[in-house]
Amino acid sequence: MASAAAAVQQSAASTDFIEQPFFPNEPTGPMIKTEIPGPQSKAAIQQLDKVFDTRSLNMMANYQHSIGNYIADLDGNVLLDVYAQIASIPVGYSNPSLMLAATSPEMASAIINRPALGNFPQHDWASILETGILKVAPKGLDQVFTGTTGSDANELAYKAAFMWKRRMERGGDPNAEFTPDEISSSMNNHSPGSPALSILSFKTGFHGRLFGSLSTTRSKPIHKLDIPAFDWPQASFPHLQYPLSEHVEENAREEQRCLDETERLITTWHLPPAALIIEPIQSEGGDNHASPSFFKGLRELSRKHNILMIVDEVQTGVGATGKFWAHEHWNLSDPPDMVTFSKKAQTAGYYFGNPDLRPNKPYRQFNTWMGDPARAILFRSIIHEIERLDLVENTRRTGEYLYEGLERLSSQFPGEIENLRGRGQGTFIAWDSPRRDEVLRRAKGVGVNIGGSGERAVRLRPMLIFQRHHADILLDGMQKIFKS
């Protein structure tokens, strides 16, 4: 990758920008020794396939040899990883600070004595939350319910929304008792105990693969086929035209159309919504964007019609967009009711602020573990790393640099990079490719592990420690693919 190294030097010289690497001992660039997968990886895949489904396998990794921004395989190949375990590695492979946290007595105790938090919380659980998960809580949301995965976080948020809605319909009295009819009908999955309510989601959105979350997932049929689903409404997500600066009026009309449709569904759907759920950037569905005005409009609708607004930050949260939480870009005067999180947090759950979102009785929002102190301790260390290295600002700066480089490539290869999007959104950048799957496959050959979304999008999901010299390597690799 000599040309990439030269590009780094030229970039630094031309901008008077001196960049100190966050991982001084990580590789200086990719290293390709064999085809991918190579012989040793093929043998390992064959062995694994006997006991585990490998049909979705991307590559067989060796994490003990992976470091920083680089992922290694069993054949000595080392790739710049801008997919990062589907956007879930925040501060690098084999991060020394996380290793210290992982090998601490506190972590060992949390792992081997994993508590049933609802019944037997450990003595320092409040401190772990206050110095970690709640330290970075979105503005206006000062409580958390912890879970295990992004799907789990959304399912729990839906349950909270339904319980809140029924409480409001009963007059808001937290001490109101359930009627005998409610109690008995709930056991038969009938109303009024099982109320005729819904969660409104958006076309091409993704919120998970569990039963409730899957009913709000609208990105790919393969997720939903053969699975019973709730009859819940879906509104259109804006289909914007790019570049945004050249289509201001058309995009404003499109967003208003979607807001009007959303309001119509809120007011007419035969199962009234208790909440709407929205991603700041639709990720699995193709990296679809909307303006702050659209999201402000949704917040106004949710208040107008007395339903909750859930913001799904499972993929966009924890610094990826140049803000710690992507919805901070909207500058809402009224915060969302709930914000769900997972992936880069390495734990999961939902934030909330309204005390009415606490169930009125114990065991209503409950499971055996209710999260995991070990993962919460790891997130606390991730937060410390983000603060120590100023990684949210790094992501903002690096994203600007990377976007400008991709703009130049799109001018040079207009047929390869279409609808480039993500300006001002950190490294949360994507473009459409007429030969997307081929680009993803060939990227490994030039030393880059990259992912896709939707039907045509190439999506970038680098770690927060991704820097300008990594961007140069990525741009150099893309140029090689486009030229051939």
Automatic annotation (TrEMBL):
The keyword Oxidoreductase does not apply. It catalyses: 4-aminobutanoate + 2-oxoglutarate = succinate semialdehyde + L-glutamate. Its cofactor is pyridoxal 5'-phosphate. Its EC number is 2.6.1.19. InterPro entries: 4NH2But_aminotransferase_euk, Aminotrans_3, Aminotrans_3_PPA_site, PyrdxlP-dep_Trfase, PyrdxlP-dep_Trfase_major, PyrdxlP-dep_Trfase_small. The keyword Transferase applies. Keywords: Aminotransferase, Pyridoxal phosphate, Transferase. GO terms for molecular function: 4-aminobutyrate:2-oxoglutarate transaminase activity; pyridoxal phosphate binding. GO terms for cellular component: mitochondrion. It comes from the Eukaryota. GO terms for biological process: gamma-aminobutyric acid catabolic process. Belongs to the class-III pyridoxal-phosphate-dependent aminotransferase family. This is 4-aminobutyrate aminotransferase. It comes from Viridothelium virens.
